[in-house]
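Reader question, answered in our methods column.
A reader sent in the components of a multi-part assembly and asked whether the whole thing could be modeled at once rather than chain by chain. We filled in our standard form and ran it. Here is what they sent:
COMPLEX SIZE: two components
ENTRIES:
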Amino acid sequence: MRSHRGLSCLVTLACLLGHTAHAGGLRSLVALPLEPGGIVTRLQVVDSSSPDNLLVSGTLLYGLTTRQTLIFNVPYRDLERGDDGFGYITGLYRGTVYQHDEPNATRRIAVIGGIRVPTDSKLDSQISAGMVATMYKQRSEWDIDLVWMQGLGRGGNNARYDVSWQYRLTPSEYPEWGIPTEWESVIELGGRYAEGSEMVHQLTVGALWVHPSWVLEAGVIQDLNGPDVTSFLLGIRKHF
Amino acid sequence: MRQLFIVAVLLCLSASVFGADETVLEIDIDGMTCPFCVYSLEKELGRLSEVKQVLISLKSNKARLTLREGAHIDSDTLQEVVLRAGFTPGEVRDVSEAN
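And here is the structure of the entire assembly that came back:
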Protein backbone atom coordinates (compact mmCIF):
# COMPACT_ATOMS: atom_id res chain seq x y z
CA MET A 1 0.00 0.00 0.00
CA ARG A 2 2.85 2.32 0.91
CA SER A 3 4.59 1.46 -2.32
CA HIS A 4 1.46 2.22 -4.30
CA ARG A 5 1.11 5.56 -2.53
CA GLY A 6 4.75 6.28 -3.24
CA LEU A 7 4.23 5.58 -6.91
CA SER A 8 1.19 7.84 -7.02
CA CYS A 9 3.18 10.62 -5.39
CA LEU A 10 5.97 10.11 -7.88
CA VAL A 11 3.61 10.32 -10.85
CA THR A 12 1.92 13.39 -9.41
CA LEU A 13 5.25 15.06 -8.74
CA ALA A 14 6.56 14.28 -12.18
CA CYS A 15 3.45 15.93 -13.58
CA LEU A 16 4.08 18.94 -11.37
CA LEU A 17 7.03 19.97 -13.44
CA GLY A 18 6.99 21.82 -16.69
CA HIS A 19 8.89 20.27 -19.56
CA THR A 20 9.75 23.52 -21.14
CA ALA A 21 12.99 25.35 -20.72
CA HIS A 22 12.32 28.50 -22.65
CA ALA A 23 11.27 31.64 -21.04
CA GLY A 24 7.66 31.00 -20.25
CA GLY A 25 5.73 29.71 -17.33
CA LEU A 26 6.92 27.78 -14.34
CA ARG A 27 5.09 24.59 -15.19
CA SER A 28 3.41 25.20 -18.51
CA LEU A 29 4.76 24.30 -21.90
CA VAL A 30 5.55 27.03 -24.38
CA ALA A 31 5.56 27.43 -28.16
CA LEU A 32 8.38 29.95 -28.48
CA PRO A 33 11.30 29.27 -30.83
CA LEU A 34 14.68 27.67 -30.21
CA GLU A 35 17.26 28.12 -32.95
CA PRO A 36 18.55 25.04 -34.82
CA GLY A 37 21.38 23.50 -32.83
CA GLY A 38 20.47 25.63 -29.82
CA ILE A 39 20.42 24.02 -26.40
CA VAL A 40 18.50 25.10 -23.34
CA THR A 41 18.76 23.26 -20.03
CA ARG A 42 16.64 23.58 -16.94
CA LEU A 43 17.05 22.32 -13.40
CA GLN A 44 14.02 22.46 -11.14
CA VAL A 45 13.53 21.48 -7.51
CA VAL A 46 10.04 21.01 -6.11
CA ASP A 47 9.50 20.47 -2.40
CA SER A 48 6.01 19.46 -1.31
CA SER A 49 4.30 19.67 2.06
CA SER A 50 3.32 16.02 1.87
CA PRO A 51 5.94 13.49 3.10
CA ASP A 52 8.99 12.40 1.09
CA ASN A 53 8.21 14.56 -1.88
CA LEU A 54 11.38 16.36 -2.89
CA LEU A 55 11.85 16.16 -6.62
CA VAL A 56 14.72 17.34 -8.77
CA SER A 57 14.09 17.50 -12.49
CA GLY A 58 16.46 18.07 -15.39
CA THR A 59 15.20 19.16 -18.79
CA LEU A 60 17.10 19.60 -22.04
CA LEU A 61 15.77 21.23 -25.20
CA TYR A 62 17.50 20.85 -28.53
CA GLY A 63 16.54 22.88 -31.57
CA LEU A 64 16.27 20.50 -34.54
CA THR A 65 15.07 23.10 -37.00
CA THR A 66 13.48 26.50 -36.60
CA ARG A 67 10.07 24.90 -36.10
CA GLN A 68 11.06 21.59 -34.52
CA THR A 69 12.39 21.00 -31.03
CA LEU A 70 13.27 17.91 -29.03
CA ILE A 71 12.59 17.94 -25.29
CA PHE A 72 14.04 15.48 -22.78
CA ASN A 73 13.11 15.41 -19.13
CA VAL A 74 14.46 13.29 -16.30
CA PRO A 75 12.94 13.71 -12.87
CA TYR A 76 14.95 12.51 -9.92
CA ARG A 77 13.59 11.97 -6.48
CA ASP A 78 15.60 12.49 -3.32
CA LEU A 79 16.65 9.03 -2.18
CA GLU A 80 17.14 10.18 1.39
CA ARG A 81 13.52 11.03 1.69
CA GLY A 82 11.91 8.88 -0.97
CA ASP A 83 12.19 5.33 -2.16
CA ASP A 84 12.27 5.00 -5.90
CA GLY A 85 14.69 7.40 -7.53
CA PHE A 86 13.79 8.18 -11.13
CA GLY A 87 10.25 8.16 -12.45
CA TYR A 88 9.43 8.73 -16.08
CA ILE A 89 12.06 9.75 -18.58
CA THR A 90 10.23 11.86 -21.10
CA GLY A 91 11.12 12.43 -24.73
CA LEU A 92 8.94 14.89 -26.59
CA TYR A 93 8.85 16.31 -30.07
CA ARG A 94 7.43 19.78 -30.54
CA GLY A 95 6.52 21.09 -33.97
CA THR A 96 5.26 24.60 -34.61
CA VAL A 97 2.23 24.49 -36.90
CA TYR A 98 1.17 28.13 -36.75
CA GLN A 99 3.13 31.33 -36.32
CA HIS A 100 1.97 34.89 -36.66
CA ASP A 101 4.45 37.59 -35.71
CA GLU A 102 3.90 41.30 -35.24
CA PRO A 103 6.03 44.06 -33.68
CA ASN A 104 6.47 43.09 -30.02
CA ALA A 105 3.91 40.32 -30.39
CA THR A 106 3.59 36.74 -31.52
CA ARG A 107 0.99 34.01 -31.67
CA ARG A 108 2.21 30.44 -32.04
CA ILE A 109 0.71 26.99 -31.86
CA ALA A 110 2.72 23.79 -31.61
CA VAL A 111 1.82 20.13 -31.48
CA ILE A 112 3.53 17.82 -29.05
CA GLY A 113 4.11 14.10 -29.23
CA GLY A 114 6.40 11.69 -27.49
CA ILE A 115 6.94 8.91 -25.05
CA ARG A 116 7.38 8.60 -21.30
CA VAL A 117 9.48 5.64 -20.28
CA PRO A 118 9.46 4.55 -16.63
CA THR A 119 12.61 3.54 -14.83
CA ASP A 120 10.50 1.67 -12.28
CA SER A 121 9.18 -1.78 -13.20
CA LYS A 122 5.88 -1.02 -11.47
CA LEU A 123 5.09 1.66 -14.04
CA ASP A 124 4.39 1.32 -17.77
CA SER A 125 5.35 3.50 -20.68
CA GLN A 126 3.03 6.20 -21.91
CA ILE A 127 2.56 7.89 -25.24
CA SER A 128 2.00 11.64 -25.02
CA ALA A 129 0.15 13.86 -27.46
CA GLY A 130 -1.04 17.39 -27.10
CA MET A 131 -0.76 20.98 -28.12
CA VAL A 132 0.56 24.24 -26.77
CA ALA A 133 -0.31 27.80 -27.72
CA THR A 134 1.64 30.93 -26.84
CA MET A 135 0.41 34.49 -27.22
CA TYR A 136 2.75 37.35 -26.43
CA LYS A 137 1.98 41.03 -26.67
CA GLN A 138 3.86 43.97 -25.14
CA ARG A 139 4.28 42.98 -21.48
CA SER A 140 2.07 39.90 -21.30
CA GLU A 141 2.55 36.30 -22.30
CA TRP A 142 -0.11 33.59 -22.23
CA ASP A 143 0.78 29.91 -22.55
CA ILE A 144 -1.91 27.27 -22.78
CA ASP A 145 -1.17 23.56 -23.05
CA LEU A 146 -3.16 20.38 -23.07
CA VAL A 147 -1.48 16.97 -23.05
CA TRP A 148 -2.90 13.45 -22.96
CA MET A 149 -0.66 10.59 -21.78
CA GLN A 150 -1.96 7.22 -22.93
CA GLY A 151 -0.79 4.33 -20.77
CA LEU A 152 0.54 1.25 -22.50
CA GLY A 153 0.04 -2.14 -20.90
CA ARG A 154 -1.08 -2.12 -17.30
CA GLY A 155 -0.54 1.59 -16.80
CA GLY A 156 -3.38 4.08 -16.57
CA ASN A 157 -3.75 7.26 -18.51
CA ASN A 158 -2.75 10.74 -17.42
CA ALA A 159 -3.61 14.19 -18.64
CA ARG A 160 -2.58 17.72 -17.87
CA TYR A 161 -3.55 21.24 -18.74
CA ASP A 162 -1.99 24.59 -17.94
CA VAL A 163 -2.97 28.18 -18.43
CA SER A 164 -0.09 30.50 -17.63
CA TRP A 165 0.01 34.30 -17.60
CA GLN A 166 3.31 36.10 -17.29
CA TYR A 167 3.57 39.84 -16.93
CA ARG A 168 6.74 41.88 -17.25
CA LEU A 169 7.12 43.94 -14.08
CA THR A 170 10.40 45.62 -14.97
CA PRO A 171 11.53 47.31 -17.06
CA SER A 172 8.24 49.01 -17.81
CA GLU A 173 9.77 50.18 -21.05
CA TYR A 174 12.65 48.58 -22.93
CA PRO A 175 15.85 50.55 -23.52
CA GLU A 176 16.50 51.78 -27.04
CA TRP A 177 19.29 49.24 -27.60
CA GLY A 178 20.50 46.10 -25.88
CA ILE A 179 18.80 43.11 -24.28
CA PRO A 180 17.85 44.00 -20.72
CA THR A 181 17.32 41.90 -17.62
CA GLU A 182 13.69 41.69 -16.58
CA TRP A 183 11.41 40.59 -13.74
CA GLU A 184 8.21 38.77 -14.58
CA SER A 185 5.34 37.69 -12.40
CA VAL A 186 3.69 34.36 -13.14
CA ILE A 187 0.21 33.08 -12.33
CA GLU A 188 -0.83 29.65 -13.53
CA LEU A 189 -3.83 27.42 -13.30
CA GLY A 190 -3.07 23.79 -14.03
CA GLY A 191 -4.75 20.45 -13.77
CA ARG A 192 -3.25 17.01 -13.36
CA TYR A 193 -5.33 13.94 -14.01
CA ALA A 194 -4.47 10.32 -13.24
CA GLU A 195 -6.90 7.63 -14.29
CA GLY A 196 -8.90 6.38 -11.34
CA SER A 197 -8.90 9.65 -9.48
CA GLU A 198 -10.37 13.08 -10.04
CA MET A 199 -8.37 15.83 -11.71
CA VAL A 200 -6.40 17.92 -9.23
CA HIS A 201 -6.45 21.60 -10.13
CA GLN A 202 -3.52 23.66 -8.94
CA LEU A 203 -2.70 27.32 -8.68
CA THR A 204 0.90 28.42 -9.12
CA VAL A 205 2.14 31.88 -8.25
CA GLY A 206 5.74 32.90 -8.78
CA ALA A 207 8.34 35.10 -10.37
CA LEU A 208 11.02 34.90 -13.04
CA TRP A 209 14.27 36.79 -13.20
CA VAL A 210 15.07 36.75 -16.89
CA HIS A 211 18.56 37.39 -18.23
CA PRO A 212 19.46 37.04 -21.91
CA SER A 213 21.08 33.64 -21.42
CA TRP A 214 19.60 32.40 -18.13
CA VAL A 215 16.50 32.53 -16.01
CA LEU A 216 15.96 32.08 -12.27
CA GLU A 217 12.49 30.99 -11.24
CA ALA A 218 10.58 30.48 -8.02
CA GLY A 219 6.99 29.73 -7.20
CA VAL A 220 4.41 28.21 -4.87
CA ILE A 221 2.02 25.53 -6.08
CA GLN A 222 -1.22 25.01 -4.20
CA ASP A 223 -3.75 22.24 -4.81
CA LEU A 224 -7.20 23.71 -5.25
CA ASN A 225 -8.90 20.39 -4.62
CA GLY A 226 -7.90 16.83 -3.78
CA PRO A 227 -4.80 16.23 -1.65
CA ASP A 228 -4.43 19.90 -0.59
CA VAL A 229 -0.67 19.83 -1.07
CA THR A 230 1.46 22.97 -1.11
CA SER A 231 4.72 22.79 -3.05
CA PHE A 232 7.63 25.17 -3.47
CA LEU A 233 9.50 25.40 -6.72
CA LEU A 234 12.97 26.72 -7.52
CA GLY A 235 14.67 26.49 -10.86
CA ILE A 236 17.28 27.76 -13.26
CA ARG A 237 17.33 27.74 -17.04
CA LYS A 238 20.40 28.25 -19.19
CA HIS A 239 20.51 28.95 -22.91
CA PHE A 240 23.75 27.76 -24.54
CA MET B 1 53.31 69.79 -27.15
CA ARG B 2 52.62 70.91 -30.70
CA GLN B 3 53.75 67.53 -32.00
CA LEU B 4 51.38 65.78 -29.62
CA PHE B 5 48.53 67.93 -30.87
CA ILE B 6 49.32 67.06 -34.49
CA VAL B 7 49.44 63.33 -33.66
CA ALA B 8 46.07 63.57 -31.91
CA VAL B 9 44.52 65.36 -34.89
CA LEU B 10 45.92 62.75 -37.27
CA LEU B 11 44.55 59.92 -35.12
CA CYS B 12 41.10 61.52 -35.09
CA LEU B 13 41.18 61.98 -38.85
CA SER B 14 42.24 58.38 -39.45
CA ALA B 15 39.51 57.11 -37.11
CA SER B 16 36.87 59.03 -39.00
CA VAL B 17 38.21 57.71 -42.29
CA PHE B 18 38.05 54.10 -41.02
CA GLY B 19 34.59 54.81 -39.58
CA ALA B 20 33.42 55.87 -43.01
CA ASP B 21 34.22 52.35 -44.32
CA GLU B 22 32.06 50.74 -41.64
CA THR B 23 28.68 49.58 -42.85
CA VAL B 24 25.80 49.68 -40.38
CA LEU B 25 22.60 47.86 -41.25
CA GLU B 26 19.26 47.74 -39.52
CA ILE B 27 16.65 45.06 -39.99
CA ASP B 28 13.07 45.14 -38.71
CA ILE B 29 12.07 41.99 -36.83
CA ASP B 30 8.60 40.91 -35.77
CA GLY B 31 7.79 38.34 -33.09
CA MET B 32 10.52 39.26 -30.62
CA THR B 33 9.42 38.52 -27.08
CA CYS B 34 11.49 38.30 -23.91
CA PRO B 35 15.29 38.60 -23.53
CA PHE B 36 15.73 34.82 -23.18
CA CYS B 37 14.13 34.18 -26.57
CA VAL B 38 15.84 37.05 -28.33
CA TYR B 39 19.23 35.82 -27.15
CA SER B 40 19.19 33.18 -29.91
CA LEU B 41 18.67 35.89 -32.49
CA GLU B 42 21.61 37.90 -31.21
CA LYS B 43 23.71 34.71 -31.23
CA GLU B 44 22.75 33.75 -34.78
CA LEU B 45 23.38 37.21 -36.20
CA GLY B 46 26.68 37.42 -34.34
CA ARG B 47 27.84 34.19 -35.97
CA LEU B 48 27.99 35.84 -39.38
CA SER B 49 31.67 36.37 -40.17
CA GLU B 50 30.93 39.78 -41.69
CA VAL B 51 29.37 41.09 -38.48
CA LYS B 52 31.45 42.97 -35.93
CA GLN B 53 28.68 43.98 -33.53
CA VAL B 54 25.00 43.18 -33.04
CA LEU B 55 22.57 45.32 -31.10
CA ILE B 56 18.97 44.32 -30.54
CA SER B 57 16.17 46.75 -29.81
CA LEU B 58 13.13 45.17 -28.21
CA LYS B 59 11.70 48.66 -28.00
CA SER B 60 11.88 49.36 -31.73
CA ASN B 61 11.72 45.75 -32.94
CA LYS B 62 14.92 45.80 -34.92
CA ALA B 63 18.54 44.69 -34.94
CA ARG B 64 21.50 46.87 -35.82
CA LEU B 65 24.55 45.22 -37.30
CA THR B 66 27.92 46.87 -37.63
CA LEU B 67 29.90 45.06 -40.30
CA ARG B 68 33.62 44.51 -40.37
CA GLU B 69 35.61 46.91 -42.49
CA GLY B 70 34.89 46.37 -46.17
CA ALA B 71 32.39 43.54 -45.48
CA HIS B 72 29.04 43.25 -47.21
CA ILE B 73 25.90 41.21 -46.51
CA ASP B 74 22.89 41.09 -48.78
CA SER B 75 19.38 41.51 -47.42
CA ASP B 76 18.36 37.94 -48.25
CA THR B 77 21.13 36.47 -46.12
CA LEU B 78 20.16 38.62 -43.14
CA GLN B 79 16.49 37.79 -43.51
CA GLU B 80 17.29 34.08 -43.73
CA VAL B 81 19.23 34.24 -40.46
CA VAL B 82 16.31 35.96 -38.71
CA LEU B 83 13.89 33.35 -40.07
CA ARG B 84 16.22 30.57 -38.96
CA ALA B 85 16.23 31.98 -35.42
CA GLY B 86 12.43 31.73 -35.42
CA PHE B 87 11.37 35.31 -36.06
CA THR B 88 9.88 37.24 -38.97
CA PRO B 89 12.27 39.57 -40.80
CA GLY B 90 11.27 42.89 -42.32
CA GLU B 91 13.02 45.59 -44.27
CA VAL B 92 16.81 45.91 -44.25
CA ARG B 93 18.22 49.46 -44.30
CA ASP B 94 21.74 50.80 -44.64
CA VAL B 95 22.05 53.39 -41.87
CA SER B 96 25.81 53.89 -42.11
CA GLU B 97 25.55 57.60 -42.80
CA ALA B 98 23.17 58.18 -39.92
CA ASN B 99 25.78 56.71 -37.58
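What stands out: Chain B touches chain A through 30 residues (CB under 8 Å). Chain B is about 40% helix and 25% strand.
Send us your own complexes using the same form.
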